[in-house]
Write a structure and sequence with these properties.
Layout lengths: L2 H17 L12 H22 L2 H8 L2 H4 L2 E7 L2 E6 L2 H22 L6 E6 L6
Parallel strand pairs: 2-3
Antiparallel strand pairs: 1-2
Helix pairs in contact: 3-5
Length: about 130
Amino acid sequence: MTQRADHLLGHLRDLQKWRQPVVGGRGAAIPTDSIRGDIASIRRGIERRAERFGNAGEVWSRLVPEPMRSDTRLAGLSGGTLTVVTGSSATSYSLDRLLRGGLAQQIIAATNGKILQVKLRVGALDTP
């Protein structure tokens, strides 16, 4: 065999070693139990948020016009105050005009008083 063929054959043997399952040590396969725990933790977090927000998400999507809704994110609900993050100051201004024009009263009525006011804040939409 030529030197190049020997080199390629050696490289293939090295690749075969790396493709075999690793037993213990660094790089070992992740046990499914740890993934199951992570999934359960994520599920509990989602259920807590759903319980905390109640029907606020559904009310928000029903009452706020789509162009504005797509540039907003519900950030929190505490003490009757719904905090909404907007992607731009223009959206924040337009939404503020709508809220002052009667949308806030509609939200209060639709949530049976769970939401008493809406606080707007400009920020990043992709971070929860």
